[in-house]
């Protein structure tokens, strides 16, 4: 199955679930309202935590956060009015904004060079990372083979590495051209493989490690510890922005209530306790 077919299949499943929830409400005559928020796998864990806290104070609302349909899937679903809120992990492109999509950035999170806990190293340099993805550095200091976990070219985490680590873009493009590494097409699959594969290395973020209880160790990069403090100070260079998206003029009352909760003091506390830097 190609990545496009996969996105389409998950997208259609999400549309079906949304339609089913609407029909259920109509059939039972209840006042329960279901809000569907779907998109990038990066956003799922924290969105579910926020949704759980939100529905405790708004029991009349239910928030459905299905499996990943990706940022591209979220954008298409919003355009088609198939979901109430989209979840994206990169800024919108100009042509996407031109389709009437509005983005509400709510947090930044440190992207990390993550390794399986069996790796003894605690830090890595940019030059070492490049040599690993080139295929030149193949073993950890204890002699065990380095198992590289990679993503598709459009992955938001690797795009940040390409932008902020000099020389990484060329190396990563070459690795794709030569089919050098195993590719994963969802954040959850990539994180699971990194957690389960001894001596592996890949890319994750602090928020997913916390909210999904992942067995992934974040390495210091060029001597800097990843985290909200080093992001805020500018010392740590790798981060991504999480946003809600909706179609202009089509933000429902339920969606607005949830967004307001995320930007509230309580919402910010949940973000901060899971390694995110809240945005105002």
Task: Give structural notes.
Strand 1, helix 2 and strand 2 (61-64) form a beta-alpha-beta unit. Helices cover 45% and strands 22% of the residues. It contains 12 helices and 12 strands. Mean pLDDT is 91; it is low at 1-7 and 10-30. The relative contact order is 0.19. By secondary structure, the protein is α/β, with parallel strands linked by helices. Strands 1, 2, 3, 4, 6, 7, 8, 9, 11 and 12 form a 10-stranded mixed sheet that branches. The protein starts with a helix and ends with a strand. It is globular and about 60 Å long. The chain has helices at 3-28, 41-57, 70-79, 94-97, 126-134, 156-164, 168-177, 187-196, 206-211, 228-233, 253-262, 265-273; strands at 33-39, 61-64, 85-88, 101-115, 123-124, 147-151, 182-184, 200-205, 217-218, 220-221, 239-247, 276-278. The protein folds into 2 domains: 3-108 and 241-278, D-Maltodextrin-Binding Protein, domain 2 (3-Layer(aba) Sandwich), CATH 3.40.190; 109-233, D-Maltodextrin-Binding Protein, domain 2 (3-Layer(aba) Sandwich). Helix 1 packs across helix 3 and helix 5 packs parallel to helix 7.
């Amino acid at each position: 199955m190609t990545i496009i077919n996969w996105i389409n299949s998950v997208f259609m499943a999400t549309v079906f679930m949304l339609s089913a929830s609407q029909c259920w409400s109509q059939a039972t005559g209840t006042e329960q309202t279901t809000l569907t928020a779907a998109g990038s796998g990066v956003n799922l864990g924290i969105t579910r935590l926020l949704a759980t806290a939100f529905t405790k104070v708004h029991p009349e609302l239910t928030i459905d956060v299905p499996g990943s349909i990706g940022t591209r899937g979220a954008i298409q679903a919003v355009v088609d009015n198939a979901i109430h809120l989209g979840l994206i992990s990169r800024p919108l492109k100009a042509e996407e904004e031109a389709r009437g999509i509005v983005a509400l950035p709510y947090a930044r999170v440190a992207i990390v060079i993550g390794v399986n806990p069996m790796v003894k190293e605690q830090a890595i340099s940019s030059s070492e990372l490049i040599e690993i993805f080139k295929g030149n550095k193949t073993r950890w200091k204890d002699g065990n083979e380095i198992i590289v976990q990679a993503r598709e070219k459009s992955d938001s985490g690797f795009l940040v590495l390409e932008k902020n680590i000099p020389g990484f873009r060329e190396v990563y493009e070459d690795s794709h051209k030569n089919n050098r590494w195993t590719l994963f097409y969802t954040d959850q699959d990539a994180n699971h493989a990194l957690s389960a594969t001894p001596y592996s290395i890949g890319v994750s973020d602090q928020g997913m490690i916390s909210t999904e209880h992942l067995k992934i160790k974040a390495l210091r990069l060029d001597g800097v510890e990843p985290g909200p403090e080093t992001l805020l100070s500018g010392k740590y260079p790798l981060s991504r922005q999480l946003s809600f998206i909706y179609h202009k003029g089509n933000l429902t009352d339920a969606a607005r209530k949830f967004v307001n909760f995320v930007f509230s003091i309580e919402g910010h506390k949940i973000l901060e306790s899971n390694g995110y830097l809240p945005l105002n």
